[in-house]
Design brief:
Number of strands: 0
Order of helices and strands: HHHHHHHHH
Strand content: under 5%
Distance between the termini: 65 Å
Helix content: 55-70%
CATH topology of the largest domain: Cytochrome Bc1 Complex, Chain D, domain 2
CATH class of the largest domain: Mainly Alpha
Number of helices: 9
Shape: globular
Length: about 200
């Protein structure tokens, strides 16, 4: 008899917990929707240049869709603090709070990565050979999909990849503690372009 009473009490406690959880979800749902709408509104300003949902339609601007959250956050921070320079991004980042940066980073990391395509099969094969010999996948992961602070480069805009690689090689971009500069130091324009063809073709 006592065990039945205890079982009944446990069942009542379980039901009480369940109802509390349901009421909490109901009460917070409007707040969650409002927060999502606020983040989407902030993201809309980014999408004016970086494309719908962060899928870039400008070959010189990077796609943010599917990029790692940590990488986006750190790049925004570097634009804000001067670790990385851009006539466009530096003043924009200056207006962002740490919370803004994290929210935008999380938002774009959850979007579907864009698909790009290169058409020069000879350069793609050459670029793959360069990527393999340079051990690009050791940092950027298999398929160059990125991890943590290491960016996703697979499927990125070809022209943007070329400019980024040249920036690292020529010392114009230095906010990676020298890792990329050591990889592409002395590499010719032609080899960087072949590497970019391969990377852009990864989908």
């Amino acid at each position: 008899m006592r065990s039945m009473i205890e079982a009944g009490r446990r069942a009542n406690r379980d039901r009480s917990w369940l109802w509390c959880a349901i009421l909490y979800l109901i009460a917070t749902a409007p707040l969650a929707r409002a927060a999502d709408a606020a983040v989407e509104q902030k993201a809309a300003a980014c999408e004016a240049c970086h494309g719908p949902h962060g899928q870039s339609t400008n070959p010189t601007l990077p796609s943010l869709a599917g990029q790692t959250s940590q990488y986006i956050n750190e790049q925004l921070r570097d634009f804000k603090t001067g670790g990385r320079h851009s006539q466009t991004m530096t003043p924009i980042a200056a207006t962002l709070t740490p919370d803004d940066m994290q929210q935008l980073a999380d938002y774009f990391s959850q979007q579907t990565p864009m698909s790009s395509a290169a058409t020069d099969s000879t350069k793609i094969a050459q670029g793959k050979s360069i990527a393999d010999s340079s051990l690009c996948g050791m940092c950027h992961e298999a398929g160059l999909t990125g991890q943590n602070a290491i960016p996703r480069v697979a499927g990125q805009q070809y022209a943007y990849i070329v400019e980024a690689l040249k920036g690292f090689r020529d010392g114009r971009r230095t906010n990676d503690a020298g890792a990329m500069q050591s990889v592409v130091h002395g590499v010719s324009d032609q080899d960087l372009e072949a590497l970019a063809q391969y990377v852009a073709n990864l989908n």
